Amino acid sequence: MPEAILTLNAGSSSIKFGLYTSESGNLAIRVKGEVEDVGDDLRMTAKDGYGARLADEDWSGEAGSTDALFRRLLDWIEAHLGDDHLVAVGHRIVHGGRDFQDSIRLTVDIVSALKGLTPLAPLHQPRSLAPIEAILELRPDLPQVGCFDTAFHRTIVPPASRYAIPSALEDEGIRRYGFHGLSYAHVASRLPDMLPGRRKVVVAHLGNGASLCAMRDGRSVDTTMGFSALDGLVMGTRPGLLDPGVLLFLMKEHGMSHDDLEDLLYRRSGMLGVSGLSADIRVLSSSDDPRAREAIDLFAFRVARETAAMANTLEGLDSIVFTGGIGENSPLVRRLVCERLVWLGVAIDPAANERGSGIITTDGSKVTAVAIAADEEIVIAEDARRLCGGTCIPAEASSRKMLSRISLKVRK
Ligand code: ADP
Questions:
Q1: CA torsion, points 277, 329, 262, 153, in degrees to nearest 10?
Q2: Which of 280, 286, 299, 328 best tests ligand 1's pocket when mutated (most atoms within 8 Å of CB)?
């Protein structure tokens, strides 16, 4: 019976899902969908592999309970399986800490170890783990695989991985981890065909969350996010790089608590904070308000500034890859970034940039820039198939080995 893999990517306001089947050795997308918070409603939309609409349904009745939501989603998926057999669910998990450096079969014990990493990603980690726990409860026999956003950056070593803090704190796990690793793994898998012979590449994953990765020969050697998903670039609602002295000032002079700061840093800053209008580049690009333009300019300035820093780690720059919702879809942002990098040898081709998708620089450009769609789901599906397709590795065997190595020392 043909094998099918379900992927789940639980974000801040949506759960993206994908259903893949194995066809002559390759994975083919059968269904791509999303359950999204839209105002007071919960909407489920799905398309088939050719982009034709399969569903657009109001699921608000399931809004209050994770179990009810995933029961409905699994029922819907199973009704669309046809002759295929669902062999695994693969999940995007934001933080793997120091110990989870590769995708892994998930068990109750592994999930509990991953919960121990919640202090490292207080808003993102619970969202990643909720679907896993719901499915463990609803379908205990369905194999599940966790794929980590931090894992691609396991190749980053000191000095790039270190903060200049006392070593005892570094030993506790306070170091640069980096995120968006599944998107970077997808780009790395495409590089040999897309940009043959280009060894020093900066990949810009620009979405609601945004970061850069310096890749040498397809491996991460530096990135702009660090210990948390707050560092680096300006984002939709996060400020990115911020002098820690600002936080000390706000605590002392404004009496701000941990929760106040968390709210400021995760939800009220970034392009939303600067513009006072929106976190969404589409809204900002079509606004005449000077604050909207200021927010976009600041965003592009910081992408360019950090690209130069990544090029320094790489000791050169052959290519830039733009991906993520903004990287793939905003010619304005790509142009503003590239215009600031002319001195590094980036010559944008305006017409190609407007068309998007593929090479957006001139033939003579020293640095080749390209725009491609992010596809974190295919990376998850491939890892889930590797760990669960065909002859399945027993979950207990793989997780026991892992758990015996784990010694988390992160303070709550
Ligand atoms: P996430 O980090 O949540 O996965 P995405 O990668 O989906 O985010 O990116 C979402 C952002 O991409 C939106 O907030 C918007 O700014 C931008 N975006 C999406 N589509 C377009 C478009 N067609 N044109 C310009 N920007 C877009």
A1: -160
A2: 280
* Catalytic choice (67, 109, 141, 149): 149
Q: Report the alpha-carbon distance of residue 242 to residue 321 in Å, rounded.
A: 25
Average pLDDT, the chain: 92
Distance of CA 279 from the midpoint of ligand 1 (Å): 10
- In tens, the pLDDT along 283-338 reads 999 999 999 999 999 999 999 999 999 999 999 999 999 999 999 999 999 999 99
pLDDT digits (tens, 9 = 90+) for 147-172: 999 999 999 999 999 999 999 999 98
Say whether both 214 and 299 belong to one domain.
Answer: yes
Ligand 1 site-directed mutation target among 326, 335, 336, 376, most atoms within 8 Å of CB: 326
Question: What lines the ligand 1 site, CB under 6 Å?
Answer: 11, 207-209, 236, 280-282, 324-326, 329-330
Backbone angles phi, psi at 146, to 5 degrees: -105, 135
Q: How far is the CA of 157 from the centre of ligand 1 (A)?
A: 31
User: Does residue 211 share a domain with residue 84?
Assistant: no
Q: Distance between alpha carbon 207 and the CA centroid of its chain, in Å?
A: 9
**Where residue 58 sits, what CATH number does that domain have?**
3.30.420.40
